[in-house]
Design goal:
heterodimer, A: mainly beta, seven-stranded mixed beta sheet, four-stranded antiparallel beta sheet, 11 strands, globular, B: mainly beta, six-stranded mixed beta sheet, 12 strands
Chain lengths: 116, 112
């Protein structure tokens, strides 16, 4: 399977705990995105990497959230001191930026976070 | 600012009915427009796209035309199938931009 993979698919945690999600993009893609989706809403942009550099961060990304892409391949999204409002589906997407780039994103199946 | 507004659902249609899902956008400059689809239990996937005014995107019998004068990108299909049941998202990305703006999604259920 050469698509975007995310792990874990579902995480249930207690309020105040830390959680980490991992995303493995399509191998030849140098751009990686994190989005958050809540019930009945479309995906909302969180952050974006080109290779290992984090180039954009949304105001939605509070200081409890941190994302890394240390070697320009997989990425992690960590949420510290989780709150019930963090319950959502966290989506990872990747894309290329080479010739012929048309803006298409390739999404993983998402990691669902439930904070009790 | 940039935003996408799409018709609220849920939409329920009988098989072979005509489908329209409305989408309008607000953007500075000249965005590219997309329709993404999310089938049950799966990730979002690109359905079709249009990168400039008057372009028509098409795929799997679905079509949408980029209308700059009405800032719209309505999704249409002439004859829906049960397998088209999914959530459909309209989205835009600014030219050379890195941030997609998604609508809230429209759930479609097609009954036999």
């Amino acid at each position: 399977d050469t698509g975007v993979s995310q792990d874990p698919r579902h995480k249930i945690t207690k309020r105040g705990q830390n959680v980490t999600f991992r995303c493995d993009p399509i191998s030849e893609h140098n751009r990686l995105y994190w989005y958050r989706q809540t019930l009945g809403q479309g995906p909302e942009f969180l952050t974006y990497f080109q290779n290992e550099a984090q180039l954009e961060k949304s105001r939605l990304l509070s200081d409890r959230f941190s994302a890394e892409r240390p070697k320009g391949s997989f990425s992690t999204l960590e949420i510290q001191r989780t709150e019930q409002g963090d319950s959502a589906m966290y989506l990872c997407a990747s894309s290329s930026s080479g010739g012929g780039y048309t803006g298409e994103l390739f999404f993983g199946e998402g990691s669902r976070l439930t904070v009790l | 600012g940039n935003s996408v507004t799409q018709m609220e659902g849920p939409v329920t249609l009988s098989e072979e009915a005509f489908l329209t899902i409305n989408c309008t956008y607000t953007a500075t400059g000249y965005p590219s427009l997309f329709w993404y689809v999310q089938y049950p239990g799966e990730g979002l996937q690109l359905l079709l796209k249009a990168t400039k005014a008057d372009d028509k995107g098409s795929n799997k019998g679905f079509e949408a035309t980029y209308r700059k004068e009405t800032t719209s990108f309505h999704l249409e299909k002439g004859s829906v199938q049960v397998s088209d049941s999914a959530v459909y998202f309209c989205a835009l990305i600014k030219l050379l931009g890195n941030q997609f703006y998604f609508g809230t999604g429209t759930s479609l259920t097609v009954i036999p």
